[in-house]
């Protein structure tokens, strides 16, 4: 019994034509009450991690050492090809930089770079990276 006819070579589509969604999220601390946190970067692989929690509590994925940040402050999740940052009813709010001023949001969708302030003193930049620019 010959099996070679059943084993066919699969043609993989050209990677140039395949438009993949965002694959990684880079989180960079711009401002923090703790100097050692400034310019600190974390990169998340969005194909593995579906939810990124932010807050003061050690159970969060990103622990933010800022007394004005709630224990469970915000969460970032993938929604289609966009990311959604959602405030978890924090005391001091989640703000997105829009036109030079921070505006308080309960949730905000983005698919590029966004600057977010958590509480009063912590400012982070969220950058989506696709396969092409990763």
UniProtKB/TrEMBL annotation:
CDD domains (UniProt xref): FHA_ArnA-like
Gene3D superfamilies named among the record's database cross-references: 2.60.200.20
Domain FHA span(s) in chain numbering: 52-96
Chain segments annotated as coiled-coil in the UniProt record: none
Protein's name according to its UniProt entry: FHA domain containing protein
């Amino acid at each position: 019994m010959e099996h070679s006819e059943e084993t066919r070579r699969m043609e993989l589509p050209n990677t140039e034509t395949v438009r993949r969604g965002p694959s990684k999220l880079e989180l960079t601390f711009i401002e923090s009450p703790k100097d050692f946190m400034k310019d600190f970067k974390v990169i998340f692989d969005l194909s593995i991690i579906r939810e990124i929690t932010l807050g003061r509590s050690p159970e969060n994925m990103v622990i933010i050492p800022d007394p004005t940040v709630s224990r469970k402050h915000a969460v970032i999740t993938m929604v289609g090809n966009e990311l959604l940052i959602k405030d978890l009813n924090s005391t001091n709010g989640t703000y997105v930089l829009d036109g030079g001023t921070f505006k308080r949001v309960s949730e905000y969708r983005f698919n590029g770079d966004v600057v977010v302030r958590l509480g009063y003193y912590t400012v982070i930049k969220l950058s989506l990276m696709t396969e092409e620019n990763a």
